[in-house]
Sequence to fold (1912 residues):
Amino acid sequence: MFRNQRLGKTSQDVLDYLSSLEADKRIFKADLLVDRAHLIMLKENGLVSSKVCSDIFLELEKLEKNGYIIGNEEDVHEVIEKNVIVGAGPDGGRMHTGRSRNDEVATCIRLALRGEMLDLMHEQLSLIRTLVELAEKHTTTIIPGFTHTQHAQPTTLAHHLLAHADAAGRDLARLEDAYLRVNQSPLGAAAFASTGFKIDRQRTCNLLGFEGLVENSMDAVSTRDFILEVLADLSILMVNQSRLAEELVLWSTSEFGYLELDNLYASTSSIMPQKKNPDTAELARGKTGSVLGSLMAVLSICKGLPLSYNRDLQEVTPHLWRSMDWTRSTVRILDGCVSSLKFNLERLEQCAGAGFSTATELADSLVRITGMPFRTAHLIVGRIAASGRRPDLGELDSISLEYAGFRPSEHDFSEANLERALDPRSNVALRANTGGPAPVETERMIRDRLGRIAEGEERLAGRRSRVEKALGELGKER
Amino acid sequence: MFRNQRLGKTSQDVLDYLSSLEADKRIFKADLLVDRAHLIMLKENGLVSSKVCSDIFLELEKLEKNGYIIGNEEDVHEVIEKNVIVGAGPDGGRMHTGRSRNDEVATCIRLALRGEMLDLMHEQLSLIRTLVELAEKHTTTIIPGFTHTQHAQPTTLAHHLLAHADAAGRDLARLEDAYLRVNQSPLGAAAFASTGFKIDRQRTCNLLGFEGLVENSMDAVSTRDFILEVLADLSILMVNQSRLAEELVLWSTSEFGYLELDNLYASTSSIMPQKKNPDTAELARGKTGSVLGSLMAVLSICKGLPLSYNRDLQEVTPHLWRSMDWTRSTVRILDGCVSSLKFNLERLEQCAGAGFSTATELADSLVRITGMPFRTAHLIVGRIAASGRRPDLGELDSISLEYAGFRPSEHDFSEANLERALDPRSNVALRANTGGPAPVETERMIRDRLGRIAEGEERLAGRRSRVEKALGELGKER
Amino acid sequence: MFRNQRLGKTSQDVLDYLSSLEADKRIFKADLLVDRAHLIMLKENGLVSSKVCSDIFLELEKLEKNGYIIGNEEDVHEVIEKNVIVGAGPDGGRMHTGRSRNDEVATCIRLALRGEMLDLMHEQLSLIRTLVELAEKHTTTIIPGFTHTQHAQPTTLAHHLLAHADAAGRDLARLEDAYLRVNQSPLGAAAFASTGFKIDRQRTCNLLGFEGLVENSMDAVSTRDFILEVLADLSILMVNQSRLAEELVLWSTSEFGYLELDNLYASTSSIMPQKKNPDTAELARGKTGSVLGSLMAVLSICKGLPLSYNRDLQEVTPHLWRSMDWTRSTVRILDGCVSSLKFNLERLEQCAGAGFSTATELADSLVRITGMPFRTAHLIVGRIAASGRRPDLGELDSISLEYAGFRPSEHDFSEANLERALDPRSNVALRANTGGPAPVETERMIRDRLGRIAEGEERLAGRRSRVEKALGELGKER
Amino acid sequence: MFRNQRLGKTSQDVLDYLSSLEADKRIFKADLLVDRAHLIMLKENGLVSSKVCSDIFLELEKLEKNGYIIGNEEDVHEVIEKNVIVGAGPDGGRMHTGRSRNDEVATCIRLALRGEMLDLMHEQLSLIRTLVELAEKHTTTIIPGFTHTQHAQPTTLAHHLLAHADAAGRDLARLEDAYLRVNQSPLGAAAFASTGFKIDRQRTCNLLGFEGLVENSMDAVSTRDFILEVLADLSILMVNQSRLAEELVLWSTSEFGYLELDNLYASTSSIMPQKKNPDTAELARGKTGSVLGSLMAVLSICKGLPLSYNRDLQEVTPHLWRSMDWTRSTVRILDGCVSSLKFNLERLEQCAGAGFSTATELADSLVRITGMPFRTAHLIVGRIAASGRRPDLGELDSISLEYAGFRPSEHDFSEANLERALDPRSNVALRANTGGPAPVETERMIRDRLGRIAEGEERLAGRRSRVEKALGELGKER
Fold:
C-alpha cells in the first residue's frame, strides 16, 4: 500500500483525502505496544533474531519519547515503520513479519478503545455514586412526581435520583458486556488470510492483556461490530443522561425554581446576574445528538460491505473517538454538576402538595378501607377534585353516599385516614412496596446500590490491573 | 385517562392521532397474561376476593377465545377493562387495583418482546448452524479472498463462511445479554410512584416468568432503554447480515459467477429466464436500512424526555415490532437462501489462482527460507508480479541476485517451495495458524463452533422452558 | 418477474418477504390513472387498437369501482394486469406495451406523492394562518422571552408566534421547491433502457398533469432522490413543529401556567381532573422522531446502490407513506390545538416583568442617552441587578457616579427614561426595528404574512387545478 | 456571558466542555466582516462616532493580519472583542452596540456557509461537466445495462453517465434553492428581542451581500433550519455520489474488468502491483455515511428545543463544517477520478451482448411487426432464451407457430428484423424515444445538458460577483 512507490503523479488533494493521520494520533501509543508484543513473539518463535529485535525496540523507545515527524505517509503505521527502518536499517522491516496493516490497525483500535472504556466505566461509576449519595441525603425530601411533565403524585427526591442511578447502572452493565467483546485480539490475522509464518497469536494476546482472540482471521480484520456496539452503548447512555440534563434545564427555570446549578456549571451575563443559564446541561443534551449521529454514520458505513477489509472502514474510527470524548466529558460534567446542585426544598414540597396530586391515594384508601369498587372510588375522588378544594370527611361522606350508597366514615374511614391520604409526606410513606418512594424502601435501595457500586469498582479494578500488569511486563521486555 | 368521560367535544382526527390500538394488537395476549398474574397476586394478598377473581378470569378467558370488539377506546388495556366490566360488573374494575396503565404497558411490551427474542435467537442459531455446516463441506474449496473487493490472497469457502458465522455468533451473544435486561418485571410500579396497596411484586414477577424486577418504580415506567438496546442489537445484526447479502448479490452477478441462488430466493422474468435477480438478498440489504431507521427514530424520541412516563413513548413500540419482524424474516430467509446456494467451484478456484494473488506468500517464503529482509523480498516479488507471468526458479534467482545479492536456490529455496507458494491449494495449507484458512484449522474451528451452537441451543431451551413453565402454571390458575 | 411461472417450489415465508402489496394500497388509484394515460397514448400512436383500448378501459373502471382480489401476486401492478387479462382476454396484456413495472411504479409513487404534498401544503398554510391570526390578537400581549429556557427580555406573544409562523413558512417553501422535482414523469422509461416502440412520453406526461419528464430513462427508474428530498423536508418541518410542541408541553405545566390546552387536545384522568396531559403535543414530539427515522432509513437504503433499479428500493416507499401520514396529521392536530389555546395573559405579563429581565434595555438606554461606554453601562446595571430590587433614579445616579464618574440624571436621563426601560410594555414598544416585538412592527409583519399566505394559497390552488384539470380530462377518455 | 467575571471557581474540564473555539476558527474571517458592516451601520446612524469607528477598524485589521491569541475565552467573538478593547480602549466595546452574540454567530455561520456553498456549486458543476463530456465520447460505446446488478438490456456508456449527470444536476438545483434561504441576514436581531437602538438591518444586509433579512428577530437567532436543509442536501448529494462510487468499485474488480482507475485515485501494494485498490471510491462511500450521521445528529439536536437560543445549538455547527469538507473533497476527488478513468471497451461490448440480454427487444419487435399479443411474444422469447442459443428465423418460426399459431416470417418479420433485435448495437439504436440510449437521443441530451451547465455557471458567477462586490466595498470602508 505504499502509494508513491509505484504509482504515477500524485496530488495533495488526493493525499489529504486518503490520509488517516489525524485520527491515528489516538492509536500511536497503542501501535508502539502492539509492535513490541509482536516483536517479542517473533523473537520467541525464532522469526527475528534477538539483535534485530533489540535494535527495533530501541527505535520504538525513541519514537515513544520523542514523538514522530510526518512525511508523505498515509497513516501512523507507515510513519512508525519508516522511522524504524531509518534508525535500525533494512532489518527494521522485519517488524512487519507475519502481520499486515489490517490486523495491526484493528488491534490498535481495540487496545486504545479498551483503555477509554475503562476510564469511562470509572467515570460512570462515580456519577452513579454521586446520584446515590445525593439520594441518601434526600430520602425524606418530598417532591412532585411527574407524568406528561404534569404533577401526578408526590414522591421523594431520593426516589427520583435513584431512578436515574438505576438507568445509569444499566448503561454501565452494557459497557461491561461490550468490554469483553472489545478486549479481544485480532493480531496475527495478517491481511485477512493468516500467514505462512508460524506465529503464536495466543502469545501476543497475552502480552497485550487481551481476554482472547478474534479467531477467524477474515473476521478479525473485517469486523467493526465492536465499534458499533460501543457506539450503541454510548448512545443509550447519552440518551439516559440527556433525560437528566433536560430536568436540570427544566427544574432550574424561574418557573420551576426547583434547583440552582452551581456557578461553575452555568453561565451568566454581566448585565443579568440573576439569569443563570444551564449551559452545561444544554450542551449535554446537544452532545447526545452528536453521539447518535456517530452511531448512525458508522452503521450506514458498515452496511453492505463485502468481506474482508475495505477502505470505507477508515471512516469509522474518528466517529468512535469523537463520541467517546463527548460521552466521557458529559459524564464527568454531569457528575460534578449533580454533586453541586442546590435544591429549593421548600418549593419542592409545596409543589408536591399542590393541585390535589394525592387524589390517587385517596381513592385507593377508600377502596382499601371501605371495600368500595375501584371505579366508584375514582368517581368520588374525581368529583372532589373538580371542586378544587381540600375535602373534609363530611364532604367525602356526602359525595360517597351519592355514588357508593354509604358513608366512608361509617366503614372505618377516619379523619386520620383522610389526612394520611392527603398529606404528601404520609402519602409517600404509605408507598413502601419494593421500588416505592417510602423512605424505608429507598433506604434499602440505597444500601443495595452502594453495594453494587462497590462490586462494580472492584470488577473494574480487577480489569484495569490485569491490563496494566500485562502492559507493565511488556514494557520491561527488551 | 378516559378521555371521553370528562372532556368536551372530540373528533375522529384527534382520536386517531392518540390511538395505539394498531400497535397494541402485538401485546393483546401478553396483556391477558399480565392481568391473570396480577389478579392471582391480588387474591393471594387479600386485595380481591376469590369470587371477583374467578369472575374476571372467566371474562379474560372469553376475551382470549373470542377476541374483542373495539369501540372508542384509545388502547388495548382500556378495551380489555371495559369488556371485563361489561361481563363481570363493576367489580371487574378491581382488576386494576394497585397498578396503572404505565406499569401494565411496560410489562406487556417486555413480555411480548421476550417471546420474540427467544424466537429470534432460535432462528439466529439455525442460521449460524447453516453457515457452519456449509463450511464443513467446503474446507478444501479454494476461493479468492478479497480486500477492497479486489483479489488479495486465496482462501477457502469454509474460512469465509466461518467469518460470517462468527459475526452472527456475536450478534447472538449480544441478544443473550440484552435478554437478561429485557426479561425484568416493571409490574407493580403503578403510575410510577408505587401504590399504597400491599402488593407483592416478586410474586407477579415469578408468575410471569421474569428474571427479576425493574425495581425503582419511577425507573420501571420511564425507561425504554431495553428497547433501545434490542433495536441496537438488531441493527448490528442486520448490518452483519447485509454484508452477507451484499456478497450474495455480488457473487451471483454474471461477471462474478461464483454462485447461483435457488429459484425460491430469486426472481426471474418470463422473457429473460437466464436473468435471475437476487431479490431476497436485495431486500435483506434494504430491510437493514429500515431497522437502522427504527433505531434512530427511537433514540431521538427518548432523547431529552424528563421522567417519568411521557406520551411520546407510545411512538416507540411500533418501531420495535416492525424491526423485529424485518429482522426475524431476514434471518429466516437468509438461512434458507444460504442453505440452498449452488457454488461454481471451478470458477472459484480458477479465480483464486488468477492475478498472482499468491505473491504475499511467495515473499514470505523467501524470507522464511532464505532469511532475506522483508522489504527486499517484497521488491523481488513486486518485480516478478509486474511481469504478469508465473515465475520459474531461474527467473526468481536472477531477480533476487540483483536485489538481495544471492540466489534463493542456493539458500534452500527449491522448486517445491516455489510451487507450494504459488499454488493456491498448497498456499492455503501453509496458513495453519489459529484462525487461518488451512483445512486443519478450519476443521478445528468447525468442531468448536458446532459445540458452541449446541451450548447455545441448550441455553435457549432452558430459557424457553423456564418461561413456558411459568406461563403454563399461570394458565392453570382459576 | 412472474415468479411462479418458471421458478420451482415456493413458500409463504418467501412470498411474504417479497410482497409489496400492503404498501401498494397507497398507489392503487394512481396505477389506474397511469394505465389510462399510457393506453390513450398507445392508441393515439397506433400501438393498440381502439377496440383493445376500450376493452381495457372497461376493466379498469370495474377495478376502480369494485376493488380487487389478491391472489399470489407480489405487487399491485401484477394484480391489475391479471384482472384486466381475465376480463379483456390476452389483448389485455397490450396495456403493458412499451413500458415496464420499473417506470410504472416510479410514476405511481410520484403521482400519489404529488397529491399528498398538495394536501400537506394546504394544511401547512392553514397552520401558518392560524399562527398569524392568533398573533394578530396578541400584538400587545406581553410575555417573557427566553434564551436557555431562562427569562431574558420581555417580548410579545405576537412576536413569538410569528417566529413559529416564519419557520413554518420556510418549511412550506421547501415543499414547494420539492414539488417541482417530484411532479415529473418517468413514464416511458420502461425497464430503464427505453423501448423500441415509438411512444410519446410528453403526451403521457401531459395527460397525467406532470410538469415535465425525468428524461434519462436510466435515471428515471433508478432515482429515489425525490423521496429523500421530501423526507428531508418533512423531517425539518417536523423538527420545527416539535419546537412548538415542546413549548406547549412546557407552557402548560403547572409551574409555567402560561396556557391551557383545549380538552380535545389533552387527556385527563377520571381521578385527577385538574391534571390535563398535553398528549397531542407529546405525540407530535414523538412522531418527529419517527419521521427522522424514516429519513435515515431511506438514506441508508439508497446509499451505495449501483444503477439502475434494485429491489432494495421496494423498502423505500413505505417509509414515505408512513412519514407523510405522521406529518400531515401532526400539522392538522397542531393547527387545531394552537387555534384553541387559552393563554393566561396575567401570568404571562407578570412573569415578563419579574427577575429584572429589562436589564439589557436599561443599559442600552444609559448608553443611548448619556453616551457612556457600553461595558460601563453593563457594569452599572449588573450592580443594580445584583441587589434584586427595582432601582430608583437616585440609586442609579449613585452607582453611575462610582463607575462612570457622572450622574445620569444630569445627562438627560429622566425618571421617564428609567420607567420606560424598566416597564416591560414600554420596553417592548422601544424595540421597533425590523423584526422586533414592538406592536407597530409586528402589525406590519402580520399584514405582510397574511399577504404571503394569500399568495401561497393562490399558488397552491393553481397547482391543484392544473392537476385536477388533467386528471379530469383523463377520466373522460374512453 | 463572561463566565469568569461573576462566577466562582472554574475548572479546565468545564471550560473545555463549554468552548467552541475549535469550531470558531471557521468563522473568524466572517466575524471580522460582520464587525465591519455593523460598525459602518452604527456610524452612519450616529450610534458610534467616526473616531471610535476608525479606532476599532484599525484593531480589526490588525487582528486579520496578525491572527489572535486565545486566553480563557469561550468563543471567537469574545476573543475579538477583548482584543479590540485592549487596542482601542473601553470604546472598543461600542462595537457591540445594538447586537448580541446570538445574532452575530448566526450571521457568521451564514456568511461562511454561503462561501462554502458557492465553492461546492462550482465543484459540482465541474463534476457534472466531466460526466457529460465523458458521455460525449461514448455515445456509441455499448455496455450492459443492469437491474438488480444483473445484465438486463444493452445500453451505452453515454446513457449511463448521463443518468449520473442528471442526478448530480438535481443535487445542484437543491443547493441553489437552499442558497437563497441561507444567504439571509439575521444581523440586528440582537439577543432575540431586537434592540432599542435605532439600527438599520437592511443596511448591514446590503453591506454583507445578503439577499434579504431573516426578519423576525426571535426566529433569526433560534433557527438552524438552514443548516438542516444544507446537511440534507449534502446527504442526498452524497448518496447519489456513493452510487457512482459503488460502480467504480464494482466495475474495477477483476471479475467485472470494465474499467481501471488512474493510479492517482487508487492504491496498490509493493508486492501485488497488479492489485489496484479503489481507495478513493471506497472512501467516497464511507464519507457518505459520515455526512448522513451529521444530518441525523443535527436533526436530533434541534428536535424539541423551545425558542429562542439554546446552548445546544453550539453543537450544531461543527457537524456542518465537517460535512461540508467531506462533501466538497468527495466531489473534487470523484471529478478527477471519473475524468481519468480508462474503460475496457471491448469487455463492455462483449458483456452487453452476452446472456441474451436483447430478449426484451426481440419480443417487442415481434409484437410491433406481427401484431401478436404481448404475453405471447414473451412466451416465445422465453422459450428461445431457455435454450441458451442465439435463434435463427426458422427456430423462431417454429416456436411461434406453436404459441401464436403463425410464422413471423410470413408476417413481415425478416432476418434483418431478427438481426436488429439481437445485435446490441442496432438494438440500442432502436431505443430513440426521449431519454433513451440511442446515440441520436443521447447526443441531443448532451447538447442540452452542456447548455444547462453553461447557464448554471453563469448563475453561479452572478452570485459570486454579487457577494464579492459587496465584500470588496466593505473592505474599502474605513
Remarks:
- DSSP finds 20 helices and eight strands in chain D.
